[in-house]
Amino acid sequence: MKKTTRNIALLITILIGILVLSEFVFKRFDMTYDQRYSLSETTHEILEGIEKPLKINVLLGGELSGDYRTLKNEISFLLDEFRTINPKISYQFLDPSKDFSMETLQENGLAPAPVRTDKGILNVYPYAQISFDGKESWMETLVNDPALPFEQLALASTEKLEYLFMEDLRKITQVNRKNIGFLVHHDELGQLHMDGLGRALADNYNVDVFLKPVQDSTYSLQQEDLKDLLNYDALVVAKPTLPFTDMDKLVMDQYIMNGGKMMFLTEMVDAEMDSIFRSGKIVAFPRDMKLNEFFFNYGIRIIPAIVKDLEASKIVLADGETTAGNISYNSYTWPYFVRGFKADENPITQSINSVKFEFANPIELLENPNVQHEVLLATSPYTSLQPSMSFIELAEVDEINPQEYEMGRIPLAVLAQGNLKSAFAARYEREEFPNFKSETTEGKLLVISDGDVAKNHVLMGRPMRLGEDKYSLRPDNPKQRPVSYDNQNFLTNSIDYLLGETDFLNLKNRKLEIPTLNETKVKLEKSSWQMTNLIIPVLGIWILGIGMIWWRKKRFSA
């Protein structure tokens, strides 16, 4: 009896000790196979760096459908983890119909998501309000993926929640933002056509245009410009149409050698869709940008020809009249609007479906022991080439011969990185450049063989979202939404990668499996599972009771 008493006392002491220890030591164990509740190191760093109170109001507090209840639960789990890491973070769920006026919702551009239920249409507001240090912002808790049906967005968003929240928390708490500069003195894309990319990059970076060569009327970079250019963490050249001078190339070379990252979107053949629509056909003239030697140093050559692809985008054309006398419109494959699909494995393209190119050129990779090449985007296997100085006719939509498209996959976007060497290391120009550097470690240069990848279309004088295709719209259907491609995601991912933001790319690419019920199986097996859940607990208690009676009789009968 004393031994039993001591054992009970020891057990009580251990339990009390565990209870007291739990007040000072907190540890969660993520036992899920996909580690869905384990946050990335970048998330930990950002959350731990928040030194002032941060409040999150999630507008999912009212009546919800099943998918949105799942989304709400996942958000709650995630924000609990945030609060565990930093107690200065607080959150609550609010009912938009009760806690906000309709004027407030409309002023902040919060449009409801209409969800069909058995009771009718339910308006859900998938948004969150973030308040920090006197600043306020709104974010969507749904992913922006045009490729997904609207009904699947709620469940698809559950695997992106950490990225969605951390992207907005980074924006509102960020102090030291990296700088991105655009070179514009070679008649690059104008502001109206760069609106989409500029706005997308401005969410996370300081975006600026380097105007000095235009302001001083030299239209070429000078030695003294390098100091100013090094204030930019990355430089973007988007569809230049004028040749580069030797000094341009020397300054850009030294920018890369001094640790700068560059992204070139350029093409070597002049062909524009507007000209084809006006005249029906054009001559594809070669365009010498004087960049062959510059790219050759990094093992890259852009061939002056145009890629054609059977898996290209479609365009809408008027092709006759209907029986009612109206203009007839139909979609046709336009082989010159090729789509870029992911090629080599890289975080940039892991979540990319396809990127639209317009009159792209093929890229040839050259052997260079100092350069590591990664083909980010390539065509489908069903391709051919249209040489420069040849006609491109709109009538080709009716003359596609599949037997001519057998060239295989052609690279369209290539990343060159590694311990890069200067193209001017053995040239006399190095003597004229102070503090000349002949090599760099961890250099990065991204070359895309089409400037239109960064060009957002303009419809009725207004810029469209980058990746939305105005050529997919039917004039006889004003309510139709344009076909969308992943141009914006690809370019923003590329900048993130060039600037070392790979952790955020990994968050963006993260895949989680949210288990869902098989509704057919539920209906077929509902009764059997109900009986199982009713009988097994009762049977277990009955067996346990019989066992205890038998054990007591056996023990005390002696």
UniProtKB/TrEMBL annotation:
The chain crosses the membrane at residues 534-551. Residues 34-130 form the DUF7088 domain. It comes from the Bacteria. Keywords: Membrane, Transmembrane, Transmembrane helix. Residues 177-493 form the ABC-type uncharacterised transport system domain. Pfam families: ABC_transp_aux, DUF7088. InterPro entries: ABC_transp_unknown, DUF7088, Motility-assoc_ABC-rel_GldG. NCBIfam families: GldG (TIGR03521). This is Gliding-associated putative ABC transporter substrate-binding component GldG. It comes from Moheibacter stercoris.
